[in-house]
Specification:
14 strands, 2 domains, 329 residues, single chain, D-Maltodextrin-Binding Protein, domain 2, alpha/beta, 40% helix
Length: 329
């Protein structure tokens, strides 16, 4: 008899075959639940864990675990995107590079959003930016209710938006997608790092860090009841991804996201690597950034929060190597 489990996933190409039933999870029947906004699912999973399996933002996951949430992430990152790019400024602004952000206000959906954690960490490491010298203006509440934001984080009043502040010139910089939302500013926005593509490639070749987003998280009681679930999920996600990558290579999958991964594969190899070993440098960097930005109280051992059933005890050595490598970046 198969066990029925609820699951929430974003609309990613690499999970399409799971959603469509072309690829199954051996011994389990997945009941897919669609959410209009995936950040709402992240918040629910951080606070009350209503789903058996759920995609979740990595930093929200780390914060939730630190706060005692009974969940475990499998080393199955759902999306990848380099983050030197993505922060924009008004064209007329005096800001010319990341260091110029110090002493200014910058808009972000929430302080703990994973994209912002990556960019703040990269700006600190690569451009010498002190994120504590920036006032972060946020629109939404943080996913983990017990988290107290640092003193340099200010929440907008109800009814205010980052886009409107940008339009009035009260904010000069914000993360993309917020700055021009709902107004006519798109033509007035430019990237703060104008040579991001070249910098991202050099950074990856030097550090091995490939920023990850969206982890597959499972409630601990579900993993305990079903000892074969983690391995079965790995196998199913791997097969669905292999099918997707073949569609990318053949040109059958040719949307904007598909083309982005096709281009990335030319220099990162597998554009959607799964597994602990394959992601250790990236996981270590994200944990380090989250701790540095005061999102989590300490840096937990990677094997304690990211599970790969295929390697078991070997994780410890990989984790130590990854942390050492990340600390040199």
């Amino acid at each position: 008899m198969t066990a029925k489990l609820s699951i929430v996933l974003g609309p990613h190409g690499q999970v399409r075959d799971l959603r469509d039933g072309i690829v199954g999870v051996a011994g389990f029947d997945l009941e897919f639940i669609d959410k209009k906004r995936m950040p709402d699912a992240y918040r629910e999973m951080a606070r009350s864990q209503p789903y058996d399996i759920c995609e979740m933002a990595p930093t929200s996951y780390l914060m939730a675990v630190a706060a005692g949430a009974p969940i475990t992430a499998l080393a199955l990152p759902m999306t990848r995107r380099f983050r030197h790019a993505g922060m924009q400024r008004l064209r007329a602004s005096a800001i010319r590079g990341p260091k110029d952000l110090e002493g200014r206000r910058v808009g972000v959906r929430a302080y703990s959003v994973t994209a912002a954690v990556w960019t703040r960490g990269i700006f600190a490491d690569e451009f010498g930016v002190d994120p504590d010298q920036i006032t972060w203006i946020t629109e939404e509440e943080e996913n983990v209710q017990s988290f107290a934001t640092p003193s340099n984080v200010q929440r907008l009043a109800e009814g205010q938006s980052i886009a409107e502040l940008m339009k009035r010139g009260e904010l000069e910089a914000a993360f993309g997608g917020l700055a021009g939302a709902g107004n006519d500013l798109e033509d007035e926005l430019v990237e703060i790092v104008d040579d991001a593509d070249a910098r991202e490639r050099e950074w990856f070749e030097r550090t091995g860090i490939y920023p990850l987003h969206g982890m597959i998280v499972v409630r601990n009681d579900v993993l305990e009841r079903h000892p074969t679930l983690a391995s079965a999920l790995f196998d199913a996600f791997e097969q669905a991804k292999a099918n997707y990558l073949e569609r990318i290579r053949s040109g059958e999958a040719d949307g904007a996201e598909d083309r982005r991964y096709r281009k990335l594969s030319q220099w990162v190899g597998d554009p959607l690597p799964y597994g602990f070993n394959e992601n250790a440098p990236s996981l270590a960097a994200l944990v380090r950034y989250a701790h540095r930005q005061r999102l989590i109280p300490n840096e937990p051992p990677l094997q304690a929060v990211f599970h790969d059933p295929r390697i078991g005890a070997a994780i410890g050595n990989v984790q130590s190597e990854a942390l050492a490598r990340a600390s040199r970046t």
